[in-house]
TrEMBL record:
This is Arsenate reductase. Pfam families: ArsC. It comes from the Bacteria. Belongs to the ArsC family. It comes from Streptomyces venezuelae. PANTHER family: ARSENATE REDUCTASE (PTHR30041).
């Protein structure tokens, strides 16, 4: 299992605390320092069963600078998917956190205790 974290994020710290309490075997990826490539983001999206706009932190300054809320410039469909993925790779602070890749090949966005426990059960 791998967990993508920002150490400054309280949700990430909570997830790590729970993983440690449960004795989970995991690897930490500080995705702001070890930025995922576009192919890695695609793979995680497939594991999550989500689209890039589903894991984008639209309140971040980078999202505002890119004007991600402009639906015409940033369509949320197949035509805009690659552009969204590139934005996430170019601006990793936009990636929702923490993301936990489970041992069964799936992944979850571990923002709640229930989501972290779900990843542990897989």
């Amino acid at each position: 299992m791998e967990i993508w974290i920002n150490p400054a994020c309280s949700k990430c710290r909570s997830a790590l605390t729970l993983l440690d309490a449960e004795g989970a075997d995991y690897t930490v990826r500080r995705y702001l320092d070890d930025v995922p490539a576009e192919d890695e983001i695609r793979a995680v999206l497939d594991r999550l069963g989500l689209e890039p706009w589903d894991i984008t932190r639209t309140q971040e300054q980078a999202a505002k600078d890119l004007d991600l809320k402009d639906a015409e410039a940033w369509p949320r469909d197949a035509s805009g998917r690659d552009r969204w993925i590139k934005a996430l790779s170019d601006h990793p602070e936009l990636i929702q956190r923490p993301i936990i890749t489970a041992d069964d090949g799936t992944a979850v966005v571990g923002r709640t205790e229930e989501a972290v426990r779900d990843a542990l059960s897989r």
